Protein 1
Amino acid sequence: METMGNLRRTHYVGALRAQDAGTEMTVAGSIAKCRDKGGVIFADLRDTTGLLQLIFDDSTAKDVFEKASHLKTEYVVMAKGVLREREAKTDKIPTGEVELFVTELRVLSEAQTTPFEIRDEINVNDQLRLKYRYLDLRRPSMHEPIVMRSKIGKVIRDYYEENHFYEIETPMLIKSTPEGARDYLVPSRVQQGRFYALPQSPQLYKQILMLSGFDRYFQIVRCFRDEDLRADRQPEFTQVDMEMSFVTEDDVMTMNEGLVKRVFREVLGVDVQTPFLRMPYREAMNRFGSDKPDMRFGLELCDVTEAVKDSTFVVFQSAVQARGSVRALVAKGMADKLTRKEIDKLVEVAKTYGAKGLAYTRWTSEACSSSFEKFLTEEEKQALYAAAGMEQGDVLLIAADASWEKACTVLGAVRLAIGEKFELIDKDAFAFLWVTDFPLFEYDEENGRYVAKHHPFTMPKDEDLDRLESDPANCRAKAYDMVLNGCEVGGGSIRINDPALQSRMFAALGFTPERAEESFGFLTEAYRYGAPPHGGMAFGFDRLVMLMLKRDSIRDVIAFPKVQNAGEPMTGCPERVDEKQLDELAIAVCLPQNGEQTPEA
């Protein structure tokens, strides 16, 4: 192997085109592919910007040609030469019109055979790819999202700074507070038996920054939640966090619409139309069965409770008597596609979301089959058809439950399953909307009390302030979520800035004054020194990048992600630590029968 010596890179290869022919240059990178054609050697050099063909032929110096003849995939090289137009041009790569005739070659690092090919369109086990993540990231399809992520971050910073925001860092070691997901805890060596938490978000700090007079704050920040993983969730993730003083809900939403418009235009060249559609939470649930509806296709839900209120069918009857809901979805003209076998699959989807089943009617040109119509009178059946808009050629799907929310959610999941299965979703579209007017509280069945739908610092709607204690189920919040293609990409609210109202909120959530003081006393104390009205939101940065690049998992847009068990295959973490470290922290480790370690302070 050689050193760079006096060679220094002069050009990245990705932007080289025919107009650059005749330029002497030095490039550097890894060999993606090498082909010896007998007297002519072609090597594709890959750097972070793209690929460029290197060529060595009978006019190449003998020592340089000899080195080239030993090149193998993933060797790291520097090559000096003159760029020239290719005889056999290709449109498969952006640099397909040019090649570098090499006059000087240095092999800086050799490489052994990789566990899988470093190219796109490979079928490789995910665990192997993650174990060798540094190799997987060399593939163009995996390299691109990380580069794109960096570009998106720059646009975000530029936009906020142009709009008078300050980028301010908040602590990573913070106080553990209730009412959120499970914290990651960090033991203190100095104060043994006490723990920090890693932040789930900078929520309290950014509110305190508003009280500190900074007026507008933003941060692209790492956050941590000890929760189960899924395609769009990681134990550590990145948030675009922002807060503004002296604003309304409309101000915050308008500011962040402008951000999204700027990001999509500058990074993707896509013109996002603003203002976004705004839809109250209850309307979103009623029409689409979701508080983050995918607006790229139709199939809206409807309420048929009134039409079946006198039915003797026990499923409908039970829901009506419990003051629940009977919701319907009509798949127009899909009777031939939605066979009984396909409907059975949808029943399983419904059961996954807590339903006991799914009532259906399938009306083809030959016959009408139904799982429930034998329990209805002819008048009831016609009233149901009219309420749902059911016609010949359609399939009617019905969910009934004592809970309005569950009935909606079940059919919302069925709607998405139909959209995916029958390709009703426009995969090229970017469909944004705001969901607003969320419930302030939701009832926690397990603990038998109300909890905050978002967090305890969310401002109630002005018209609902008087019912905070008397009717919490019908209190709405000054809260808003930005939704893109059926995914929540960001959410926020106007915050409480009155210590008396904040105390009422804590009481409504079941906090004793002592517990509220212990957990949040520093915040309520700060309120007493003058707090401007303020609000903000946070974007899931990983999720936004994932959706912009049309990827299926946020793991594709994170350099070193975790897997299902919250481990990292490449480094092998989490790992045991030695006894000395545990002793310094006054921690003993108890190993349960299954062999997993459970720390006890």
Protein 2
Amino acid sequence: MKRYLQIVLNVPLALNRAFTYRDCDDAKESESRVGHRADIKFGNRRTTGFIVAESDTLPADCGVDETKIRPILRLLDDEPLFTDELIDLARWVSRFYICSVGEALSAMLPGGRRESDAGSFPLAEDAPDTTARTLSDEQTTAVQGILNTQTRLHYLYGPTGTGKTEVFLQAAETLLARGKGVIYLVPEIALTAQVVEAVVARFGQTAAVLHSGLTPSQRLGEWKRILRRDARVVIGARSAVFAPVPDLGMIIIDEEHDGSYKSGSTPRYHARQVAMYRSARRGIPLVMGSATPSVEAWHAMETGTVARHTLTKRLAGGAMPGIRTIDLSALALDCCISPELAKAVTETLAQGRQVILFLNRRGFTHFFRCNSCGFEMKCKNCSVALTFHKSEKRLRCHYCGWQTVPPQECPGCGSLDVGYSGFGTEFIEQEVRAKFPHARVVRVDTDNVTHKGELQEKLDAFRRGDYDILLGTQMVAKGLNFPRLQLVGIILADTGLHLPDFRAQERTFALITQVAGRAGRFFPDGRVLVQTYSPGRTPITCAVHGTIAEFYDEELTQRAALHFPPFSRLVRLVFRAPTEQQAEQAATGAAEILHNALKKYEEKPDAAKTETEILGPAACPIAKIAANWRYQILLRGNNLVAMQTAAADLLYNYQHDSNVYIECDVDPVSLL
């Protein structure tokens, strides 16, 4: 009897498009092919396909005569790699993130590419014990709350050092004893090595590690160990959320706020959203944790959607460091290290202790500010910082495209003392070496960490005491756990505040809070000095004074007033082309198509009014990357299905210049 196979490909075709093939002539009828990969001829080329369904008769919607149905060349797997649950999950990913089912399945078993394309600043806890230790009262209450309630969504909230990792591990041990499996997600394997080592040491051969350093064959080997139940605890970065764990009993997301959980390539999934879907489908707990929750997670805790478990007591000793701001606007500096910070560095080095100087380099060099009152220019429509385009002498919003001429005097106080601020990385390194000529300085950022393992080598060398001053960007914040560290200096805390992104304040607050929690881990004399032109801005004052709830309350108030997440949903469409004109024309044509698609959606019977805004088209904040010009459109509203429908209609039906590539990002975490 002939058997027909429905096969999907890792290509950007319409959402659920599958192709019909015949099974091999030597196939055994009793063996299902669903979940296997197949070597097939597609057009004139050989490629790999994923078998998602099978039937004994030709599908009615095949559209091809039976005589023209090709057989597969061969099966690539002895056993299915994808369970029915994972195929169902791939279909959901396809619908939600607007990609093909084949692209979704391919993302589940990636071939060793890095998973940190959107990373921010995950900070590993102190190395947890390799054997279970006695829990504090707070930790015991948290474990019981996670395991013994009907609530599915949980959040473990508390400062660094309060023992969140131990709660995760002991909850996992309980689930394992019940015969269940566990997925444990960390932001990036290389920078949370202590946690990974502790999990492997605690659970032994029952642990599987999925990470970007594995070869495709090694990753496939781990995948099969999980399917065979040889591994019951899976620890990994973003894509480990798809692990085929039989009898999955819990998913853990450590450092939930971290940006690397969002994929930077198609499908642009967020591991937190995928974990929520799997949790809901299986009725199992999802446990998230961080010292600085995302604003969306905080709002979910405040509204009761997510159960909060709070840890307050630091278990490793030490004390929270002394932290204070240095107001740069009150100083007439021709350099970037203030006299107070320079003095603190000199004193620390004299004691034989170590210093970290931190740069939040992800910022635009030119942002407008008044040196008299601190006034900053913002968009009248979006309330995000305007970026100064020096060549055009214009201030422009990279959300909606609104622009204005830079004022000659401050609109707030009338002062003529206005200008543009910003620092550069290499300039700061030169200044540090000049000011402290006898100090051993090492710089760590994406520009000078080139080969695999170099980052860990430099951090280990600093931990051993081979260097006195560590100078770096967000990459450095990921490893701040050094016994001899006494002083942390943040060179310019507010560069991130001036990014044209509504999440800029959230990132700035999280960064300062996390960095502050690292100094003074082993001694009570840790110090943090925060240099800023905006000492009165909420993210900075709240981080410095530890008034965390106040920050989230104010940020949520602003988000609600401006109709940004979590009070709305976003879909971002980016148009890339070799010339600016091609990108702009494609975006302009797309805006009209989206408008018509949304209108058509509303005309459906029983369809609710979408009230979706179309922001743009406007040039992306980073207008040109890799010789490609970029324009973007944002869809903003509360009816996500309407926006997804309109975006899918655009992606699969828009006849545009062949040189234009369109990216679609549902619920983006960055708009740069």
Protein 3
Amino acid sequence: MQTARASAPILLTAAAVCGMLSPTGAGAQEEATTGEAAATPADDRWTPALSMRYHQVGGLAISNDGAKVAYTVREPLMEGEKSEYLSHIWVADADGSRNVQFTRGEHSAGSPAFSPDGAWLAFATGRSGRSQIWVIAMAGGEARQVTDAKPGVGQFRWSPEGDAFAFIMRDPQTEEEEKAAKEKRDVEMVDQNFKYGHLYTVPFDPMATETAEATRVTEGDFHVTGFDWSPNGSQLVFAHQADPRINTGRLSGDIALVSAGGGDVSQLVTGPGVESSPRWSPDGSLIAYASTGDQPEPVGLSDLYVVNPESGDVRSLPETPNRSVFILGWSEDSGQVFLNESLGTTRHVIAVPVGGGEIRQVTEGAGVVGSTALAAGAGRLAVTWETNDEPREVHVTGLDAFRPVQLSSVTADVPRPPMGRTELLAWEAPDGTPVEGLLTYPVGHEEGSQVPLILNVHGGPAGVFAQSFTGNPSIYMIQYFAQQGMAVLRPNPRGSTGYGKEFRYANFMDWGYGDLSDLLAGVDEVIEMGVAHPDSLLLMGWSYGGYMTSFAVTQTDRFRAASMGAGLPNLVSMVTTTDIGDYLVGHMGEEYFNDYETYEKHSAIYHIKNVTTPTQVIHGALDLRVPFTQGQEFYTSLVRLGVDTEFVVYPRTPHGPTEPKFLMDVSERILVWFNKYLRGPRPTAEEGGSG
């Protein structure tokens, strides 16, 4: 254990704590502690409520001629009994002359897709009960329903001629299963009776007034995960895995072909690796796909390959910087494949040549490309773009040079109070490992003043903190903490994505040790900069960040308080209850029953007696990724140890808040917890309580 520093804790000024919550209940409103602060309009300060007003721009579509861009806007509904999101589709002219809302109503609409001729816009909506394909004419008129798929439609694509759709649908319940459910006899047999996703097609007639009957294209005990049409519309290429379980997707995946009318399935790419995301070239000669190579890579790896659909010949293309490809599509001449890839703290579109040559970066700048849509024939690309200081909006650019033109103005009228500036830092861990991170200063920070520092650890571990807008609504509202006079350090320790395969694998069988040294070295860097007060350090993280929080407090008492969100302190019980067990086995190197020592060495619960740091525990009641019992184990252990703690449980919540009221609540609760220990003497295990 590291000895607590002797320096006195820094106390927040009145201005810094004027937004501090009363710890009496959920969603308590901010209260000012000075007359001056009380007179400050709420819109002049960063709060979770203000961040929620930054509505999120989502999925994009661009017409083949590049003239129109469709995009979704998601807003939270939080009045009265409501706590949900509503998404609708907007359409903008690529020259910026027109930008209008295209769908309305109380049911969300998403997944916009222009017909090949640009005359129709298809989208998915549940307004008829289940998610179905609907279309609306670009010239105007009422939307109409195309499919009537009983369980609902998943992914869908227009045919090349625009006369049909292909879509994925899960197997529906049988009549007997429906009857059993009604009669409360619906016993679930775990890992049996899978509902596979299969391909269907449905014709599209512009003159029709009713839904058409869909044709099932694939049959069998496999689960379709992605697909594409051949350029002439005669075939479908699709990726499939052994069953629908998310863990299976880390272990199996092949590419196959089938006639668009159905029939025999022809396996195209098989083997021990995991293949996914097939995309057919415009000239029909090649199919691009992502693959882990000659073996599964549960820690995370996907390279770019192409296969000849006639001969079956496969070849790999140049390795991308991060080796984690996300395929967007092909160039019009079938000579390049466009990808979206994390590059350090940025995310950009890159172009990989098929015939050899250098990889080209298409988009540029210190920011993040999110959603994308490609109009290769028109040489245009639509993207969402954001930076540390500018919120996400829709832009369009040429493919030859990045000259983005902003089309949307979703956040133009939302107040933008002064922000805590964000700086990209670089440092070295004690073993020489280079590490990057983002430091957000308090709002109005004066050079030379030492402030409380929050160490915020991302999930994954193959997550990454990127240069996205720091005022975004998120589990951790960065500008909200900056408004309270706190600095926030968001490091990318070994194991993070964005820095290549070797860095992503650098924490293999080393969770809690090398990665923790990366994090603490970043904290020391901010202290040496004269920004962080050494005795006012705080710690928070979600998922793997929650794991690191739990493990860190067993290794050091430098932090005055910590908040573990959806953390996994016991890797033995975690690997047997999570829905992604092989991801954890991939990091630990072996099954737990063959190597208890490794799992115990890297589990906070086996070092729990060392903890003295007051640690808040937050978890979703319906979490399957990191089961609820993980949080319960840690909380109960802290109570029995006499370490100050509290357990915050969000009902109806999986691995992260899905309801906006809960999302707003998280940062407020954490702030209350942190301020409790920043403002008082450091507790000891003997003095603590159950909170």
